[in-house]
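Recap quiz, item 2
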Amino acid sequence: MNSFLIKNIGDRSISVYFENIISPEINLNIHEIVERINKDKQSWLVDVVPTYNSFSVVFDINLTKSQEVKNYISEVLISKKNQEFVNENQTIINIPVKYGGEEGPDLEDVANYCNLSSDEIVKIHSSTLYLVYMTGFSPGFPYLGELDKRIHCPRLKKPRTRVSSGSVGLAGSQTGIYSIDSPGGWRIIGKTPMKLFDLKKKNPFPIIPGMKVKFFSVDLKEYTNIEKRIIEEKDFLGFEINND
Amino acid sequence: MTNNCFKVLDGGFLTTIQDLGRFGFASRGVSKSGPSDLNSFKIANLLLENNINSLTLEVSYGLAKFLILKPITISITGANLNPLLNDNKIPMWRTLNVEKNDILSFGSSNIGFRSYVGVAGGINVPLVLGSGATHLASGLGGFSGEKLSKDDLISSYPLKDKKKMFMYIGKKNEGSKNIKLRVISGPQEDLFSSKVVDRFYSETFKATEKLDRIGVTLEGSTIPTHSGNHDIISDFTPEGSIQIPGNGKPLILLSDCQTTGGYPKIGVVASIDLPKLGQIGANDSIEFEKITVEDAERLYKIQNEEVSKKNISEIVIKEYSIGIIDSKYHVKLYKNDHKDSEDFQITVNGKYVEIEEVIDSFH
């Protein structure tokens, strides 16, 4: 069990911080605790928000107090020491991506920056199994890691005013997928037809923190076919699931 | 019968539809949104005997204009953005009956920033993830996820009974040129030297024009971290977070803020003062005062009692016919039935008049 600090974030949320690094072990530990707290369903619970190396418990200030929530969190963390919590998100989501071209306008720049060919960038990006560390920025936007060191590259100097949803981007040691049309400064190497936030589907958030994802390369024809199926088939979300 | 109650003639600077907010989806990256000034929002609904979560209009800065499409009861709370009904001044913090074809318009003000317009029964929009609150950045809720603009038709839930008239007699959050915010020390306060933290709590900052429903940027002395590095591993950012980005200028987050952020939080505004954030306008002076969580909780309880039914008082109308020389005036006095309140309004021939001086109290 890692060491941690419990802190107030205002008077209606408590955060627990683990070691100040980005690591899959720490992050997976967090998802296990978050899952446990969500299952507990305390009457005062509003939200549990996992991030890279911390999680926050948001509570109803009319129903409880900070100290009581801190006591509760301490109890959960102590019980975690004694028993293994199970991460139930063992599925791997396989995400189709059309790399380069109009869909990935920055792929060549990234290749130049990394002294690699575009094909090598695609191969490296699509061969890693990523952990969904957290969602943030916009509804359903997943922060994925760890990105292979060979394809780390800085954000754009001047962010784009509009990045279309489905765009797959790189920023430093991170990779992620734009879930809605929004401004953004990540370098866009491809695009998925998959919707990461779709209110028309039964599950608007197909990718949630703690899951694992992998990308696979598709050509424009396959991309268009998947896109069409997502619109036509109510329960088709555009990705493939592997149950390990 | 259609339930359209307003037609937007002018959306003004920024008018959105808000309820209490979208809760339970922060872990999915969905902002809470909701009213920037929670207390004024609540009172707008309490006056109308609405459900506390009913949707209201949030009028930022003013300049909005609406055509009333059917007889309804409304309430206007928050900053005094000089609301007019058919070009006549109308009182705030009470219920008002408006008629078909009336025009409700807002001026502006340099004190306070946001007004709330409650509608008896509540505004009716489809709920998205359990809430009708508008979140502009992600296009969720409200009127197609957008701010109101010309020709939008706003509908409300139908009401069976005619409402009683009420007035709010408690403490009002109308905004001020000098705002003091009580703050709980933030999770990254230790990234700043004690000298810099002392400076943060002793100096006066000024709100810049960079303000919206997401945040307010302040100017004043800079607040550097001791390492000079202002990047942290992204963590949760609730409403009221005071972030210090690399330029050292505090940025206070409001209700539309993102769920996570990568700047250190020197403090987080206590719940009691979150409503004040919604009334900050450009050039307002801002000061911070550190308090403990225990004090914040105690003060919140007291404030919550203030912003409640306890301070909603029924209006008693007294009518007079006054003849002066050849003119006849029909005068209505609207007062409340609370013995300690001196709030009242007067209409002369149906128009609200400004009261210059009270010579004798009616108590």
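The mean pLDDT of chain A is 91.
Chain A touches chain B through 47 residues (CB under 8 Å).
End of item.
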